[in-house]
Amino acid sequence: MSKRGASEAARYNRRFVERARASGWRDAYLIPERHPCPPCLVAARSYPLDDLPETPLPECQKPEGCACWFAALLPATAAAPAAA
Known about the structure:
The chain has 2 helices and 3 strands; from the N terminus they run H-E-H-E-E. It is an alpha+beta fold and about 80 residues long. The model has no long low-confidence stretch (mean pLDDT about 85).
C-alpha cells in the first residue's frame, strides 16, 4: 500500500462516518489492510459508531501509512434473506 493508498483510506473513512451518522447507522467494523501490522490487527473489530478509532491509526507501524478502513455492520435484528 502506498502513502497515496493510505490517504485515500483516510478520506474514505471520514466520508463513511459522515454518511453512517446521517443514516442512523449504529455500528461499524475496522477492517485492516491485507498485510496489517500488529496494532492494526488488534484494532480490527466492531465498534459503536461513536467509538470508532481515529484513522489513520496512530499506532500503525507501516512505513507507507495506515490503510485500515471502515465497513458498516448490519444490525443483529436484520432479517436474513429467505432461502430460495
